[in-house]
Each structure stands twice: as structure tokens, then as C-alpha cells.
Amino acid sequence: MPVSSVLASPASQMIQAYLNNPRLSNIKNIVFIIFVYKLLSFLNTTFLVHGPSRTYREVKTYLAALAFRCAKMVPSVKNKLETELGKAAKDIEDKVAPQDDNFPRYITLPKHGFSDEMMNQEIARYSELPHTRWEEGRVSGAVYHHNKILSDLSARVYRTFSSANPLHPEVFPGVRKMEAEVCAMVSDLFHADPDAGAVMTSGGTESILMSCKTHRDVAPVTIHAAFDKAADYFGMKLIHVPVDPITMMADMNAVKKAINKNTVLLAGSAVNYPHGVMDDIVAMGKLAKKHNIGLHVDCCLGSFMVAFAEKAGYKLPLFDFRVPGVTAISCDTHKYGFAPKGSSIIMYHTKALRRFQYFKKGDWPGGIYASPSAAGSRPGALIAGCWATMMHIGEEGYIKEAKHVIGSMIKVRKAIEAIPSLYVYGTPRTSVVAFNSKKYNIYDVSDQMSKRGWHLSALQNPPGVHFTSTIPSADASDEFISDLQEVMADFEAGKITESGSTAGMYGMAATVPSSVVAEVAGAFIDALYKP
Fold it and tell me: What confidence category does residue 2 fall into, taking pLDDT thresholds of 50, 70 and 90?
């Protein structure tokens, strides 16, 4: 007998004995049962919510992603992927953070502080960096007003309250009162009962995070990505339900099937970000009441447009606290409330529900600690700026702007519908118009509009672009329509044949696993922090 066999025999016997151990066998069986249970649960949920065709696509996508992860273990594939991701990251960096040798870079503190004159020079230099001309109304969303009087008011209020922090209400009672009044005024706009409670946050994402934390999700795929963020943060499982391919509203049959004993919150939009469409909040409210669960209505983008649409003469389906079953609403005051950036309101139908949002620590050595939202210290100047903006514009002012913005959206929508090769997604309600082309790559259309100075927002799943009307862009709506008509005429005449960068990027995103797209998105964020 070979020596190696003799030497290996005791080790082989030990390994065999270990593998045949009944305890290990039981553990293996338990692990296998858990794996099968989780797999069947996933397939069952997916099948119930999405049906057989979507389940097939989900399984196919999962298997493709699994195969891709295995392929990445091969050194040659891994090296190739890292090389391509490196190129993509470099391209993003060159675009987002281009280096100018004539522009100073500050990566350490100056030894001596800048004088007022030097500060003015540097501030002017930074503000004049090349950028998309939002002032001319050519940007979708982003900046919601261009009123100099309002900007000057915000600057004046910020100067007055620059040191204020509502964490210390006894030191800054004015800011405390302003926040309470803003919460009360916005709650009134959404028809809240006297027992309702609200909190001011830094923006729509924080408002949504706080609502999810409070309700501790079944939501349409068009719901804002902040709900995915909340689920990731708070260990919740978010179930995306499909939307109707024609109306782009949440498929209510899928919502019904997705609810189970662990569901704590339904979420719908008024209006959603991709298509400007309003979900059937009344139907969602009935489901929420039936199952005794929460219902969050995301009005972050709808903002004061949905709140004032009715008074401006535009009929909308019910979506606010008048709907039985609605337990929370988020509204961004820094969008169509025109307040300084960094303010949003999360409203609850009762003060008792709002208390679940608070964090309280009674035995901290630093004293009793309590905060209403994720932040501890908050900029009181932004609260004061929001209060001052709302008081300055008033109800009549907001009704006037709602007529202007919604009227502009309707005009743009009708113009798009009049172009044979284009079609509009769903029924836009307030400010967002999303569209696609029956004949041409819509991303090429977007790139051609970019060459004319327009900044449209790209959509995917399904492909499309949208344009969000703001005060500046509403003023420029006739110019937008004219340019879009000319671009589509050029396509029809065969004058445009090449594909642009947007088509290439979203074409790539549709063919590679989402993990690779996430890597590219991470490279974009990295580029933002390059001095």
C-alpha cells in the first residue's frame, strides 16, 4: 500500500466520521429547509404580486446576477470588469469634477483667514463656475422659483437666524414658534384634523424615513427611492408592486395580494416622481383600514401644487387626510412652497402616532435627551426662511403660482400629444410630464434637447424622459415646445442618425446586472467629493 494512502487514512476517517455525525446532519437539514422556505416564499410573493411572466423575469434576472457573481471570481473576468469600471469612473469624474489648473484647490485650511475682499472674490468665482442655465427655465425641476424679492427675503431671514437651533427652544423661542406654525399651516392645507401632528425635516427623504420608522412596506415601483432607503436603514422589507402600463398607477390587485400579516405600511404617491401620476389613494385607504395598517401618501413632489390645485381650478382625486385610512403625508416646502432648500414636513393623522417618531433617552449622563427626527441640531435659519416665505406669498400667491405651473404642464402635455411619434405616460396631474417615442430612441431625443440647452430627466423601466414645470420653466414653456417640435422634425427628416451619451448609458444599464450599475452610481458620488 502506498505510504500516502496509509498517512491519509486516519484523516479521511476523521473527516468521514465528522460528516456522518447526526448533529451535523440535522444542522444541514435545517439550513436546507430554511433555504428552500425562503426561496419558496420569495417565489410565492413574486408570483402573487407580479404574476407568472414577471416571476419568470425576476428568476431569470436573479440567476443571471448569480452567474455574474460567479464569473467575477474568475481572475480574467474580474480584471476586465475592474478596468471597465475604472474607465467609467474616470469619465464621470472628468464630467462632474473637471480639473482647471487656473482654479485654486483648497484641501488644507489657509494659514491666515481670508479678508472680506478675498472672500467676496472667491465666492464670486465659485458661483460663476460653468453650469446649466437654470435661470432661463431650461432645467427640469431642481430650482422652483427665480423671484429675486423672495431670494433677498430668504437671505435677510437667514442672516437674522443664522445661529438659531431648535434643539434649544428656550434659547431660540422664535424659531420654535415658527416651526410649530409652519407645521400647523401645512397640515391645514392637507385637511388634517385638529389632533394631527407634524414635524419639520431637512427634506423629502428624511420625511419618508421618519414615516417608515414610525410605522415600522408595500409600495408601487414608482414610489420614491427614499422608501428603499428607509427599508435598508430600518431592517424593513419593501415589496414593490407593479404599476398599470397604461395609467402608470399602482396596480391595486397587486397591492391586495402583497399585503400579509407582517405588513405595517402602504405607500402611494400624489404625484409620483417618474410620471407625475397620482396613485388611487382612496382605494389604498380602504385597504389600509381593512387590514388596520398605515398609509403614507408621498406629496413631496406634489407639494403645494396638489394642495392648491383645487382652489386654482383643477380637479384632483382625493389624496389627503380627507381619505379614511391615510395616516401620514410628506410634503416638501422647499419645492412648490418655494422655501429655501432643506425643509420638508412629515404629517401624521394623530399626535399619538407622531410620538413614535421621537427618539428619547432618559438616562444619558449628558442629561435627558430627546429629538423629534433623525437630526439633533437643526438649522433654525431654514425654519425661519420657510416661515417667512409662506407668510410672504400667502394663499393668493400660491393659487396664482399653481395656475401658472399646472397650466404650463397642460400646455406642454398637449403639445407632446400632438407630435405623432411621441406619447405621454399616464395622466399627469400637476407639474411633471413624462413621455416616450413610438419610433425613435427617447434618450437620443433627450440628448438633442440637451444640445439646445434643455436639461431633461431620464427615466427607465420603462424608458422615457420627463420635464418638470417650475416657475422658471413655466415661463419658458413656449420655447420648450418649439425646440421639441423642431427636434422631432429633424428626426423625421433623417437629419439625426447618431446616438448620444444618454442612450449609451441607459442601454448599458439595461444589459448589465444592477450591481454593476450600482458601482457606477457609487463612482458618481465619489466624484462629487473630489476638490
Answer: very low
| Closest of 458, 455, 478, 466 to residue 428, by C-alpha | 466
Return the DSSP state at 376: S
Q: Give the C-alpha separation, 79 to 171, whole Å.
A: 58
| Nearest Cα residue to 519 out of 233, 223, 92 | 92
> Residue 202: what residue type?
S
Phi, psi of 133 (to 5 degrees): -80, 75
Residues 123-145, buried b or exposed e (16+ Cβ, 10 A)?
eeeeeeeeeeebeebbbbbeebb
Q: Which range (105-119, 189-203, 316-330) has the least confidence?
A: 105-119
Residue with cell 399626535: 351
pTM over 0.85: no
* Average pLDDT, integer, range 233-238: 84
**154: closest CA among 330, 343, 378?**
343
How far apart are alpha carbons 207 and 242 in whole angstroms? 24
> How crowded is residue 94: how many other Cβ atoms within 10 Å of its Cβ?
11
Please provide the DSSP assignment of 224-250 as one string.
-THHHHHHHHHTPPPEEEPB-TTT-SB
